Amino acid sequence: MWSSVCSVCFAWVCVVFAVSVLKALLMDSEVQRDGRVLDLTDDAWREDRLPYEDVTIPLSELPEAEQDNGGSTESVKEQEMKWSDLALQSLHENTPSTGT
């Protein structure tokens, strides 16, 4: 009976050790490279560049053409997404009344 219990314990220790080794090998901070991808890219593919004129950028992503306010580099989309309404009137309306 003890031999079967010992073999089960030994098997469990082996599983725990194997899991810890796998976790150490597959850490998130380390890149796991797949060798098959290396065959898909070559020097000619890596050196190929898209001409600057062919890169399309939506107008909402570009900063304003005339910047009168001191050189802000935010795009129109970024400016629209800013939260600038402080809703101060709701603070005034929702103030609790004093018990007088």
Mean pLDDT: 69
* Major pleated sheet: none
Radius of gyration: 31 Å
In terms of DSSP E residues, the strand content is under 5%
What is the rounded distance between the termini?
A: 82 Å
Which structural class fits the helix and strand makeup? mainly alpha
Shape: flat
Return the string of H and E elements: HHHHH
State the helicity in percent bands. 40-55%
Helix tally equals 5
Total strands: the figure is 0
Low-pLDDT windows of residues: none
GO cellular component, one term: anaphase-promoting complex
Subcellular location: Nucleus
Organism: Silurus meridionalis (Southern catfish)
Pathway: Protein modification; protein ubiquitination
Can you tell me about this structure?
This is Anaphase-promoting complex subunit 13. Keywords: Cell cycle, Cell division, Mitosis, Nucleus, Signal, Ubl conjugation pathway. Pathway: Protein modification; protein ubiquitination. Pfam families: Apc13p. Belongs to the APC13 family. It is a single chain. The chain is an all-alpha fold. The longest helix is centred in the N-terminal third of the chain and has 24 residues, at 2-25. The relative contact order is 0.05. The radius of gyration is 31 Å and the shape is flat. The termini are far apart. The mean pLDDT is 69. The chain contains 5 helices and no strands. It is 47% helix and 0% strand. It has helices at residues 2-25, 35-40, 43-47, 76-81, 88-93.
